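Handoff note, outgoing to incoming analyst
You'll be picking up this chain. Sequence as last confirmed:
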Amino acid sequence: MDGKRKSFVAPLALAVVLFLAGLILGFYIWGVDGGDHVDYKQTLRETIDYIATIEHRNENLRERVAALETEAAMAREQRAEGAEQRADEIELLKQQIQTLRKENQELRSNLQPLTQQQDTGGAGPAPQQDRPGG
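Most recent structure output, in case you need it:
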């Protein structure tokens, strides 16, 4: 029996030594809880406060984003109105240019007989002038 007992004691002693080494190493790494109990109510209050702060900031950000979106929409609208107004002004200027070109053409056609008459020395029919009242 001595042989069986020695073969049984050696692994048992090894297991006890490893257990004690693990226990000592565990206390060394993680330390002994010095009695500091976690105040779960306080931790929960802090968590609630933190969540409330995040929600408040989120609401502020939403308001700012909404304001910025409104400003952007107004800017787009003003830009579109400005483009439309510029298009109207361009169209008006084109009409004025067309009117001035017609007037210029009429003046040139009225001026051409006068220059021909001057070049020929006054011979030829006198140009007709519009007279007020008849």
